Structure formats: structure tokens, C-alpha cells
């Protein structure tokens, strides 16, 4: 282990910079396309259900491959793995840029996803290997720039580009950066993490794909198809059965594809629980704000994205600062303060009205992101710090997988809550309007009736959004309670094992 110890004394900053750039463009691309979906629908003449697969399919491939990332990281060296992943992402980006048909664009997005799914776990694992525990906070705080800022600035950048250029420009901008990253990686990237001579259990991979893929597809489709659709509950049931079978199989294996026994470490288990709750709460603002701003207030997509930009900037500034504070004070203090801010701002979002000033919305959203910046990386890092080094790939894979799944489940549940509340509010408002109509008054014109109907629809949707933000505040409150139980983590002692460890740069022998 002498190589790894020397790396910890002098971390490979050049290598980490290359991984950062690759991960940044990959995550940025995940949210970049959302505002462009209407333009793509028009060009390829496809409906909303079909075009949504550009996002759903991307998330599905991520959900299927991320659990397998622990195997890839342990079995293959960092350089080959990153170049392969980045090359796949680059190929997908090029295909999307020139896609002559919707089917080609969909395949291109899935190829992109197959590359990006490996980058985040690989980068996190290199960071954990390269930095000792007492310096991981600052390092992982900088990593937060990638994890949080990229998806946050995506809508703003996309809105501006779509307003001035075509949707293909989104891929044209990313492509040269991706190509350059591959070229630099070929010449400059080195191996940091040790490899192990392990074999892939194909049945585990199949179960994992069906399990996580089924849950992601089912919950992601619920908002569009409804919970009574056999496509929704059928895939959720199949996914749940496959996932339980997958977990039981992993627990019986000496060398599992994804190690679930890491949950015997209490701080990792607690951090996972908090991260799941935070992911659900975080998606409330990401989903509800564009609906409120664009549908109810009639604000343009660009200004809708612009509203979120200050929050993204604050998160970018705060992530490295939060990391250093984590090294000094630990995760609990930061998590309690950050989650308190998140609960309070979520509550204030539940009170927004038809005429809430744009500046107030920006301020609330920015403060909410400030709170999130103090929570996510410290909580995640504190949990990972308790794991033995050999379990780092499993810990990073588990965290990334849970974020994907909990994000999909949270989105589906919050959309359902909003829709149900909107429907009941619309019915109540319509009955109230009918009760106030003077039977002797002249019938309103068609235009006036349509305007009144639209006004009721907007008010009902606002009630639905307010109620959902209140639910989000309660969910964040659960995470706040859990945060009080956090303690500063130290790595557990390595367990005795007979596995073959191959130092960085060597080839694992079968």
C-alpha cells in the first residue's frame, strides 16, 4: 500500500482536474436538454411522452450502470476506465449533434449516459483514495462544485442558448470540451486506485438492472401515466422483487457486485438515510419552481432558468468553504444549520402567491441552495469516511445509486401530491365561483368565461404547489432530526481477507 500512502502525501491534482472536467460536462449535459424538449418535439414531430424519454432514458441507463461501477472501478485501472467512459460520452454527444431522426437522438443520449454513469463514482473514489481523512472535507467540498453546480446552471445556460440558437448547439458546445478531455487523459492520466482480480457475476448485473431500472422507470412514469397504469405499478413491483433478490444474493456472496454489508457502519447508514431524504426535498424546488414561474406567472424559460443562477453561484462558492468547515467542525453542525435553512425556506415557498416579486423568489431560492450546500457533501463525506478503504467503490456506487432512485421516487410522489391537491382545489374554487354567480345577471362572454376558467386553474395549481412545498418542508424536517445523531467518522479497521490486491499501474491477473 506504499503507493497509495505516497499519493495521499501529494495528491494527483492534475489527474483530479481532468476527472473534474469530464464529470462536469457529463452532469451538465444531464439537465441541459430539459428546456430544449419543446423545440425537439417540434422538429421531430413527437409527443411529450416520447420526448420525455430523452431524460428518462438517460436516467435509466445511469441507474442501471452506477451499481455496477463498484466492479468496474475495482477491476479496471483508472486511466482505461475514464478514457472508455469519456469516449462513450463523446460519441453520444457527436451522434446527438447530427441526429437526423428522434430515434438516433434517443440512442445517442443513452450512449452518453453509459459514459457519464461511470465518471462520478470514479472521481469520488479517486478523491477518497488520494486524500487522507483529515483533508477529505476540503477535497470533497471542491468536488461539490461538479456535483451541485453543473445541474444547477444547466437550465439557465440552456434557456439562453435555445433563445438564440438551435437545440443542437447544446451538444456542439459540449463536444470540443469532451474531445479535448479524452486527448489530455490519454497523455496525462495516471492510475491511483488499486485493482483486484474479481469476476463479474452476470446474474447480479441482470437483477440489478431489472431492479433499479424497474423502480426508476416506474416512479418516473407515474407523473405522466398515473399510478393506476399497469406500466407504472407493474414495473415498480417487478423492480422491487428483482431488487430484493439482488440484495439477498449480494449478502450471500463473498465478493459481491455491490456490497450491502457496508450498512453495518452506523455513520454510513445514517448519511445514506439523510441523503435520501435530502434528495427528495431538493427535487421539490427543481420541479415546482419552473411550473410556478412559467405556467402560473408566464415568465420566459430563460428568465425561469436565470432565477436559479444565483443559487447555483452561491453553491459553487460555498462548496469548498463548506468542505474546509467540515474538516474543522465535523458534519453535524453544518448539517443542522443547512437543514434548518432548507426547512425555513421551504416553508416560505409554501406561502408564495400570484404576485410574489421575482426578486423575492430569487432570494428564497438562493438561500435554499445555500442551505443545501452546507448539507450534501459534508453528510456524504462523513458517511464515506467510516468505511474501510476497500469498500470505497461500494460506498460511492451506493450513494450515487440511491440519489438516482430517491430523486425519481421523490419527483413522482411530489408531482402526485401537487396534482391531487390541484384537482381538489380546482373543484372547490369552481363550486365557490358557481355559488357566487348572480342568477339574474347576464351570461358572461366566451372570452370572460375562458379567462375565469384559466384564473381558477392557475389558483388551483398554486394551491397544489404551496401544499407540496409544505410537504417538502416536513420531509426536510425529518432529515434535520436525523442530523442531530451524526458523529465525526473515522475509518473502520480493514477486515482480514484473502483477496488479491493489485497496485495501481499493474494488470489484475485472473
From TrEMBL:
Residues 15-491 form the Major facilitator superfamily (MFS) profile domain. It is found in: Cell membrane. Its main location: membrane. The chain crosses the membrane at residues 12-33, 53-73, 85-107, 113-131, 143-162, 168-188, 200-219, 231-248, 268-293, 299-317, 329-349, 361-380, 464-485. It is a multi-pass membrane protein. Signal peptide: none annotated. Keywords: Cell membrane, Membrane, Transmembrane, Transmembrane helix, Transport. The keyword Nucleotide-binding does not apply. It comes from the Bacteria. It holds the Pfam family MFS_1. PANTHER family: MAJOR FACILITATOR SUPERFAMILY MULTIDRUG TRANSPORTER MFSC. Belongs to the major facilitator superfamily. EmrB family. This is DHA2 family efflux MFS transporter permease subunit. It comes from Halobacillus salinarum. The lineage of its organism: Bacteria, Bacillati, Bacillota, Bacilli, Bacillales.
Amino acid at each position: 500500500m506504499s503507493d497509495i500512502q505516497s499519493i495521499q502525501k501529494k495528491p494527483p491534482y492534475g489527474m483530479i482536474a481532468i476527472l473534474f472536467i469530464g464529470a462536469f460536462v457529463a452532469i451538465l449535459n444531464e439537465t441541459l436538454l430539459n428546456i430544449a424538449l419543446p423545440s425537439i418535439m417540434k422538429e421531430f414531430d413527437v409527443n411529450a411522452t416520447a420526448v420525455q424519454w430523452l431524460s428518462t432514458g438517460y436516467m435509466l441507463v445511469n441507474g442501471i450502470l452506477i451499481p455496477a461501477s463498484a466492479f468496474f472501478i475495482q477491476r479496471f485501472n483508472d486511466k482505461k476506465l475514464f478514457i472508455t467512459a469519456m469516449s462513450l460520452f463523446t460519441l453520444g454527444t457527436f451522434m446527438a449533434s447530427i441526429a437526423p431522426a428522434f430515434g438516433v437522438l434517443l440512442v445517442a443520449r443513452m450512449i452518453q449516459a453509459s459514459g457519464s454513469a461511470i465518471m462520478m463514482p470514479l472521481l469520488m473514489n479517486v478523491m477518497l483514495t488520494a486524500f487522507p481523512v483529515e483533508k477529505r472535507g476540503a477535497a470533497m467540498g471542491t468536488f461539490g462544485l461538479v456535483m451541485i453546480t453543473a445541474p444547477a446552471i444547466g437550465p439557465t445556460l440552456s434557456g439562453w442558448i435555445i433563445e438564440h440558437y438551435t437545440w443542437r448547439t447544446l451538444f456542439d458546445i459540449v463536444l470540443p470540451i469532451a474531445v479535448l478531455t479524452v486527448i489530455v487523459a490519454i497523455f496525462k492520466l495516471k492510475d491511483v486506485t488499486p485493482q483486484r482480480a474479481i469476476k463479474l457475476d452476470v446474474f447480479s448485473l441482470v437483477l440489478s438492472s431489472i431492479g433499479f431500472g424497474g423502480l426508476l422507470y416506474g416512479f418516473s412514469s407515474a407523473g405522466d401515466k398515473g399510478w393506476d397504469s399497469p406500466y407504472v405499478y407493474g414495473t415498480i413491483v417487478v423492480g422491487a422483487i428483482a431488487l430484493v433478490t439482488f440484495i439477498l444474493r449480494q449478502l450471500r456472496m463473498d465478493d459481491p457486485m455491490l456490497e450491502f454489508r457496508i450498512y453495518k457502519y452506523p455513520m454510513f447508514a445514517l448519511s445514506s438515510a439523510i441523503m435520501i431524504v435530502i434528495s427528495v426535498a431538493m427535487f421539490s424546488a427543481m420541479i415546482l419552481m419552473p411550473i410556478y414561474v412559467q405556467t402560473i406567472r408566464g415568465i420566459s424559460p430563460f428568465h425561469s432558468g436565470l432565477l436559479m443562477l444565483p443559487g447555483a453561484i452561491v453553491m459553487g462558492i460555498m462548496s469548498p468553504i463548506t468542505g474546509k468547515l467540515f474538516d474543522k467542525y465535523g458534519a453535524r453542525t453544518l448539517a443542522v444549520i443547512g437543514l434548518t435553512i432548507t426547512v425555513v425556506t421551504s416553508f416560505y415557498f409554501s406561502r408564495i402567491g400570484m404576485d410574489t416579486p421575482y426578486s423575492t423568489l430569487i432570494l428564497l431560492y438562493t438561500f435554499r441552495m445555500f442551505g443545501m450546500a452546507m448539507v450534501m457533501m459534508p453528510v456524504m463525506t462523513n458517511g464515506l469516511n467510516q468505511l474501510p478503504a476497500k469498500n470505497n467503490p461500494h460506498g460511492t456506487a451506493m450513494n450515487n445509486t440511491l440519489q438516482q432512485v430517491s430523486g425519481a421516487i421523490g419527483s413522482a410522489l411530489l408531482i402526485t401530491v401537487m396534482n391531487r391537491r390541484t384537482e381538489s382545489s380546482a373543484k372547490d374554487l369552481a363550486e365557490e365561483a358557481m355559488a357566487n354567480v348572480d342568477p339574474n345577471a347576464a351570461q358572461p362572454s366566451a372570452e370572460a368565461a375562458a379567462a375565469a376558467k384559466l384564473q381558477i386553474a392557475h389558483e388551483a395549481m398554486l394551491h397544489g404547489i404551496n401544499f407540496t412545498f409544505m410537504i417538502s418542508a416536513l420531509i426536510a424536517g425529518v432529515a434535520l432530526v436525523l442530523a442531530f445523531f451524526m458523529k465525526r467518522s473515522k475509518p473502520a479497521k480493514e477486515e482480514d481477507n484473502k483477496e488479491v490486491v493489485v497496485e495501481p499501474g499493474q494488470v489484475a491477473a485472473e
